[in-house]
Specification:
By secondary structure, this protein is α+β, with helices and mostly antiparallel strands. About 70% of the residues lie in helices and about 5% in strands. GO terms for molecular function: antiporter activity; flavin adenine dinucleotide binding.
Length: about 500
């Protein structure tokens, strides 16, 4: 008598084959402009009980566990790749979007949910909180695979926002679950507990992220000197260290998502030499985490159950994308004087992904009445976001003028930067005298200094200013300073203005 290994081979064959087909399909979908992650969601749905696979899956606890671990891996990888200079550029506006922006998005979406789904206020606002934050997995993946190079201010704001907004989304979700379960208006005690929880989430995540990141960076540098591990081992060290930070911070009551992102940023800055060889392997781990997470979340949904609420769920998605997100972005970015074209792009690319689906599992585990509705609506919102916002990202970047040309495309570079360029140290007064531009107030300034003084924000590549009949554009930056300025001359004239 021989022992059958079908219990191992058949599930493994099914899962591996599905992942392989989804990866290949994802590569082609990315070329067609569709989100890579959308394919994994659809593949999971096809494997589920309503699809050809016919696999029933209702283990929300497993999906919640896998989703959290996968998001931790993705945030770690994102933190490791974020340069400190980029972080400084986007931190302040991203922090506003990650806090006030989430609240505004959740509130406006909650109003739409109350009207479209006929929910009471606690449940309507709970649904708004579930879908109110952007998703790190979707943002990181789309920015990597879209083939579009965004200016640093826009890219860093989007990336850092998606890495920082999870604590606020989790706080709002848990607080509103308590309100919905109690069936009464929130008391001062509940609000006080919620405020303390939010402070603990943000403060604990930040402190532990920085502290553990510094300790791990020192340890990695020491290991690199003593043992000289290979790239694969370094990646495993980083992965295990990041998951340790996530688990420990979560256990102590802080935001594990914030902590692992900040720890990755600190490690990437303090131990760059040890981290760089492992980034290729870490990229593989991050993609595996995204693939597994979206496959499992797709498997968890029952497509036939979406039909009853499809129309109002699409209405919620439209309210989020067309009203709530633009309003939140306009309010939060107003103090930072972002150009209108950048505000428009950031408002449109508020990508929803795994986070709303994972947050929608919270009410199901808490036994909130009607929790399945939250999950179904969140799933429709994510599908709509990946289909519409994700697929249109390259078009939106070009349409709003935030896309930078490829470095190997001279024709595109001329269209963006102008027909010729000058070094940043060129005296601005000399350029004005040579081309007949209006004189400048301070003749001692170089063109780079003049540009930095008159630019409403910290200059990044692609920023443009008009001076008389000329349009000046930052063509190249080095270590945060303007190195080359592109110039385009036309027949227009006018005062200084920023585009």
């Amino acid at each position: 008598m021989t022992m059958s290994l079908d219990f191992l081979a058949v599930p493994l064959l099914t899962a591996a084959s599905l992942l392989l087909v989804a990866l290949v399909a994802g590569l082609f979908s990315a070329r067609l402009g569709f989100s890579f992650l959308l394919v994994f969601l659809v593949a999971g749905m096809l494997l589920g009980e309503d699809g050809p696979g016919g696999v029933p899956f209702e283990d929300h606890r497993l999906a919640f566990w896998v989703g959290n671990v996968a998001l931790a891996v993705i945030l770690l990888d994102g933190g490791l790749r974020t340069r400190l200079a980029t972080f400084r550029t986007g931190l302040a506006p991203a922090l506003g979007l990650a806090t006030l922006g989430v609240v505004v998005s959740a509130a406006v979406t909650g109003v739409a949910a109350r009207w479209l789904l006929d929910l009471d206020w606690p449940r309507a606002l709970l649904l708004g909180a579930i879908v109110g934050s952007t998703d790190a997995a979707a943002v990181f993946a789309l920015l990597q695979t879209s083939g579009v190079r965004l200016n640093e201010r826009v890219a860093s704001t989007l990336e850092i926002e998606s890495g920082l907004n999870d604590p606020m989304a989790v706080f709002l979700t848990l607080m509103l679950i308590g309100v919905a379960s109690a069936g009464a208006a929130p008391s001062w005690g509940l609000l006080g507990d919620g405020a303390w929880s939010l402070a603990r989430q943000f403060g604990g995540g930040l402190v532990l992220g920085v502290g553990l990141g510094l300790a791990l960076a020192a340890g990695l540098r020491l290991l690199a000197r003593l043992t000289r591990p290979g790239a694969g081992v370094r990646a495993l060290l980083l992965l295990s260290a990041g998951l340790t930070v996530f688990a420990l911070t979560t256990w102590l009551g802080g935001s594990g998502f914030l902590a692992v992102y900040v720890a990755g940023l600190v490690i990437g800055h303090r131990a760059r030499g040890s981290v760089a060889p492992a980034l290729q392997a870490m990229d593989g781990y991050a993609w595996m985490a995204q693939a597994g997470m979206f496959l499992l979340l797709g498997l968890l949904v029952t497509p036939s159950a979406l039909l009853d609420t499809l129309a109002p769920a699409l209405g919620v998605a439209a309210a989020l994308m067309l009203v709530a997100r633009p309003l939140a972005v306009a309010l939060c970015l107003a103090p930072f004087r972002f150009p209108p074209r950048e505000v428009a792009f950031i408002a449109w690319v508020g990508l929803r992904g795994a986070v709303p689906i994972v947050l929608a599992v919270f009410p199901m585990m808490a036994g909130v009445d009607g929790a399945k509705l939250f999950f179904n609506v969140a799933f429709v919102v994510v599908l709509a976001s990946l289909l519409l916002q994700g697929a249109s990202l390259p078009w939106a970047a070009r349409r709003t003028g935030v896309a930078l040309p490829d470095r190997d495309d001279p024709a595109a570079a001329r269209r963006v930067y102008g027909d010729f360029e000058v070094p940043g140290e060129t005296p601005m007064a000399a350029l004005c005298a040579f081309y007949g531009w209006p004189p400048v107030d301070d003749e001692r300034l170089s063109v780079a200094q003049w540009f930095a003084r008159h630019c409403p924000q910290r200059p990044v590549e692609g920023d443009q200013l008009r001076w008389g009949p000329a349009e000046l554009c930052v063509r190249r930056m080095r270590d945060g300073a303007i190195e080359r300025i592109g110039i385009r001359l036309d027949e227009n004239s006018g005062d200084l203005s920023s585009r």
